[in-house]
Amino acid sequence: MQAIRLQQRVQQNGELFFSQLPVVKGQVIEVLLLFPPSAKPKKRLTARSLLDSGLLGLWKDRTDIEDSAEYARQLRQQSQQRGGGGQ
Fold this sequence. Notes:
By secondary structure, the chain is an all-alpha fold.
C-alpha cells in the first residue's frame, strides 16, 4: 500500500478539496482523517498549589528516614539506574 500525506486547513465546514493527486478515474482509494491533539495550556504549578498538594511534609512522621534530602537523592538515583529517569 502506498501512502501520501497531505495537510490542509479546513476553509469551509465539512469540506476538503485536494487536486492534482496521482490517482486515476475508477481507482479505489482510502481516506483517513487524523486530527492532531488540541493544544491545551499546561497547568501552572504555583507555590499555593504545592502547599495544598499534601506533598510538603509527606515524610515528617517517618521514623525510618533521618535525612529526607538524602533519602530523596537516593530515590532519584535508584530511579535513574532502573531506566526510569523520565527523560
